Fold this protein.
Amino acid sequence: MAAKKEATIDVQEMSTNRVEFCVLGRTPIILNRMSEKAKYELLFPKGRKTAAQKATSLKHNPYQEYRDSPYTIPDEDAPTLIAHLATSFKAAIRGAGVDVPGATKAQLGRLMWVEGERIPLFGDPRLFMAVTRSADMNKTPDVRTRAIIPRWACKVSVSFVTPQLNAKTVGNLLAAGGLTQGVGDWRPEKGSGNYGQFDLVGPDDPEFQEIIASGGREVQQRGLDHPQPYDQETEELLEWFYSEAERRGIEVVK
């Protein structure tokens, strides 16, 4: 009997490359980090409140919810105070890959990644209040307060495996993700919103440079310490909330 031939396995050599992109917000970004209060109540639920407790306690504290909504960078030497998760930009790339023939979200997730954990986000934050719908069966309405940055920019470094991917492909996917996926809350990927869209620009783009120069850590700290309403509806809701709290004798820390 002839000896059985062993199959030869030919593994293609792989390496990695990295490219940095300048990201310029096309639409305002809504920051949606889960608040500390919500996390604590997940660990130790308080249970249902009585009618009397509801009447004498606050369901919301807009200023605190505003300050809790962005991810932050504790390092005082960092260029910004506010950050956004690197995984959000990776998700935008993976989501855009659904529309690209021959690629899947899982494949793209294995072949590329966004460097870092929290990406410095430049821009001056504002306080944004809006009616939202909860995820329960009845879609219960509520008013949420979050930070919104009308004009924003950042730098995103993407590493990828070659030869499966190249810089042009990654750039095209990130640009597509900026239009069809977005980052932050109420983004296009969720279906109903168009916040958090972005474009890729050159490092010498005038608007990009202006936001980087004027929207750093000091400006953001001032914006969180002394909140300014984003729009007229937010301003009206804030005024009513604090006047009603005062009428009911409930002290609200601003």
About this structure: The chain has one domain: 15-33+57-237.
